[in-house]
Amino acid sequence: MEGSVAGSARVGMGTILGNYVTIGENAVVGAGCVIGNNVVIHRDAVVGDNVRVDDNAVVGKMPMRAANSAVTKEQELPPARIGSLCIIGTSAVIYRGCRIGEKVLVADLATVRENVEVGDGTIIGRGVAVENHCRIGSYCKLETNVYITAYSEIGDRCFIAPCVATSNDNYLGRTEKRFKEYGGVVVKKGGRIGVNATILPGKVVEEDTVVAAGAVLTKNTEAGKIYAGVPARYFREVPEEELLKNQDFKGRK
Questions:
Q1: Residue 53 lies in a domain
Q2: Looking at the whole model, is its pTM more than 0.85?
Q3: How far, in Å, CA of 111 to CA of 92, rounded?
């Protein structure tokens, strides 16, 4: 095995390191972890106990700032933190300033940016991109290739189907007016969004709302209703048995 473990780094009992692993200064890797080949764990990062990090994943990456970026700022960021019993997939990238709860799956090729919090038990699917300054609740499912724009908030127990897209800029990068109205989306507790739906900037998906597949949401919703179409309009009530309050999560948090 070849690699580089900084002298100030700490690796817990029973942790297995693959080939060419790099662990930076002051990083902490807990007990019973399995760290794959070519993994990079940057300085100060904290990885909990019994975490699996697959080949080529990166934990604690510093954000990049383009020379002409209007919104990305230089900043001091706290260390990346990954809770116990998580799985980080192949080639996933977790940025510095990201905090991930326990029993979270971040699947292959996913990216979780700085200033992001992910709650316990959530699934971040294959190829998902969670941009900066987002909060993702507990026990959510973000399926393959979901895009969560910066400054968004996803509540607990939300379901976001494959290829859902969100946006935070109504002016598509032009005019100073965009900075006054710049903002991500909010999906409140139990919200569900169907495959290939698009949520426009600043829109609120209320609790237990369903946004149907292929819909384009241009207005805030009301709780417990289904919206469908382009643009999305009220379709009907969510069936009573489908409401979050009527689900039994015992044994399957």
A1: yes
A2: yes
A3: 6
Cα distance between residue 39 and residue 35, in whole Å:
7
CB 132 within 8 A of CB 149: no
102, part of any domain: yes
106 domain-assigned: yes
Specify the 3-state DSSP secondary structure of 245: helix
Taking only the tens of pLDDT, the chain with its 253 residues reads 677 999 999 999 999 999 999 999 999 999 999 999 999 999 999 999 999 999 999 999 999 876 665 555 667 899 999 999 999 999 999 999 999 999 999 999 999 999 999 999 999 999 999 999 999 999 999 999 999 999 999 999 999 999 999 999 877 777 776 667 778 999 999 999 999 999 999 999 999 999 999 999 999 999 999 999 999 999 999 999 999 999 988 656 6
Q: For residue 7, tell me if it sits in a domain.
A: yes
Q: 234: which 2 tokens? A: 């009220």
Calculate the dihedral angle through the C-alpha atoms of 137, 189, 208, 111, rounding to the nearest 10 degrees.
-20
CA proximity to 15, closest of 26, 56, 39, 108? 39
Count: domains in the chain: 1
How many CB atoms within 10 Å of residue 119?
A: 22
